[in-house]
Design goal:
Number of helices: 3
Strand content: 25-35%
Number of domains: 1
Order of helices and strands: HEEHEEEH
Distance between the termini: 12 Å
CATH topology: Beta-Lactamase
Shape: globular
Largest sheet: 5 strands, antiparallel
Helix content: 40-55%
Number of strands: 5
CATH class: Alpha Beta
CATH superfamily: Dynein light chain 2a, cytoplasmic
Oligomer: single chain
Length: 122
C-alpha cells in the first residue's frame, strides 16, 4: 500500500512539469524506495550518488554554519539535479531539463516531499 502511494506521489510530481525528466525516492543511505527513471538510467548509481551528495551537503552546511541542509542543487549543461529531504531519513532526487523553471520545480518537489513525509510518519 505504501509502495502504491509512493508511486502515485512520484507520478504526480513527474506529471506536474514537462521539465522533470526523472525522479526517485531513496533512503539517506542510498536504498531506492521507488523511482520513475528513463530507460537506460541506472537507479543504483543514481541512489548511490544522491546519498553521497546529501551526506556531503549536510556535513558542509553544518560545518560552515549554514544550519540543517534542506536541499542540494547541481547545475550541468544538460540540466539540473535537485536532491531534497523528504523526512529525516528519506530524500527525493529530481532531474530536470536545462531550461526548467526552478521556482515551479521547487514548489512541486516540496509538495511531493511533504506527501512522502506524511506517508512515512503514518
Amino acid at each position: 500500500m505504501r509502495s502504491e502511494k509512493l508511486g502515485a506521489i512520484l507520478s504526480a510530481l513527474n506529471d506536474s512539469s514537462a521539465d522533470i525528466e526523472a525522479s526517485a525516492v531513496l533512503s539517506t543511505d542510498g536504498l531506492i524506495l521507488d523511482s520513475l527513471l528513463p530507460a537506460g538510467m541506472d537507479q543504483d548509481r543514481l541512489s548511490a550518488m544522491s546519498a553521497a551528495l546529501i551526506s556531503l551537503g549536510s556535513r558542509t552546511s553544518e560545518d560552515l554554519g549554514r544550519g540543517s541542509l534542506e536541499q542540494v542543487l547541481i547545475k550541468g549543461k544538460s540540466g539540473y539535479v535537485l536532491i531534497t529531504y523528504a523526512g529525516p531519513e528519506t530524500v527525493i532526487t529530481v532531474l530536470t531539463k536545462p531550461e526548467a523553471r526552478l521556482g515551479l520545480i521547487f514548489l512541486d518537489v516540496k509538495r511531493a516531499a511533504d506527501g512522502i513525509k506524511q506517508l512515512f510518519n503514518n
